[in-house]
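WARN retry 2 of 3 for item q-0093 after timeout on previous attempt; input resubmitted unchanged.
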Amino acid sequence: MKIKKRWPKVVMIILSCFILILAIALFILLPKKIFREPTGPYQVGMTTRYVVDSARSETLSADPDDHRELFLQIWYPARENDLSRASYGTYMPEMIAQIAKNMELPAFLLQHLKSVRTYSALDVELSAQEPAYPVILFSHGLGLYGFQNTFQMEELASHGYIVVGIQHPYHSLLTVFPDGRTIAEKSYDMAQFDSFIEMNEFVTDIWVKDAGSILDYLERINLGGEDGRFTNRIDLKRVGMFGHSIGGAASAQALLLEPRIQAAVNLDGTLTGTGEIPGTGFTKPFMQLSAAEFDLSQAEISGSEAVIGVESGISQEEYDKHADFLQVFENNQRNAFVNGGYHIWLKGASHYTFTDIALYSPLVPYVLKDKIDTKLAHRTINAYTLAFFDKNLRQIDSPLLKPSESDIVKVTVGIGRESRN
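OK item q-0093 returned
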C-alpha cells in the first residue's frame, strides 16, 4: 500500500519537471527580450503617422477614386525620460495572424512578439540638444513591414537621426490603417518573367514616389501643424534612405531619381528598378551590404543564361523581346559601384540576417543556415550603416569605410567597370 501511495507523488514530480523544462525551452526559444540597447548618446522616441497623398491616385486599388495612403513609424532622438518603453511593432495581433497565415505556422509560435519591448518611448518630445536633425527614410522588403529593422532604427535615432519607416500598401505583409482598414500583400509569382518586370516597374514608379510623398509630408510638418513635435526640427537638407531587399533597390532608385535623397544604403537587395544608373555610377554616395561577395560575372547577361536563370523556364524569344530592359538590369548591377560605391560583404550572413526576423527565435538563424552570430551581425550592420550616414550627412569620417578585409567583413570601394580594364 505504501508503494501505491507514492505513485501520485512521483507522477507529479515528473510532470512538474517536464513543465519546468518546457517553460525554460519556451523562454529560450521564444524570447521576449530580443534587442540590445542602442549605443548613441540620445534616448529614443517613437510615433506613428498616417499620410494621404491627394495628388497621387492609388493605381493598385480597384476604386479609381482612391488616393495613395501610407502608414509611417518614426523613431527620433528624444529628451531624457523615464517613461515605459514601447512594444515592438504596430498592430501586432493582426500582423502575427498574417505572418502565421502566410508561413502556415501555428500563431502561438509568434505570440511572444506581442510582449517584446523596444528601447523607444512613445510620443515623447524630441531632444533639444540639436536645433534640427537629419532624416533617413526606410523601405521594407517585399511582403515584410516598416518596423522589420527596429534594431537599426533605434540605433540610428540614438545617434541623432530621425528615421521614418514607410509601410508600402499592397506590397507589405499587411498594412493596417488607424480606422481599422487592412490591405494585404498583393501576391507575385517571381518564377514568372512578367512578375519580375512588374516588380522592377513598381520599385521605380510606386516606391520611389512613396519616398517623395513622405518627403513632401515631412516638409509640411516641419513648417508646423499636427502636434508641432517636428516643427523646425527636421533638417531636410540632410536626407538619406536605406532599405532591405527590394526596399534597398528602391533606395538606390530614389538616390538616382529623387533629388532630395543625398545618400542611400541597400541591405542585400538585387538592384531592381527601371531607372538606369549611368556608366559613370551614382553622382551621390551609395553603399550595399550583402550576404555574398560581389561577383561581376553574376551581373552579365548572355542569352538564356541571364541573371534570372534558365531554370525559370524563360525562352530566348522572351529574353530578346525584353533586351533593353535586361540590359538596364545588367548595367545597374555593375554601375552602382563604379564611382566610389561601397560594397560590404557580411560573411556568414543570409538574406534575413539583415532584419529583426533573425532575432525572433534562436532557431531562426539555424533555419537560415547563418554562420555568423546574429547579435554580432547586427552590431556590424549598424556600425557600417551609421559610419556611412555620419560621413555623408554629418561629415564625420570613419576608418570603417576604407577598403579592408577581416573574418567578419570585406569592404570594397569603387568596383565595376574600371575593374575590367
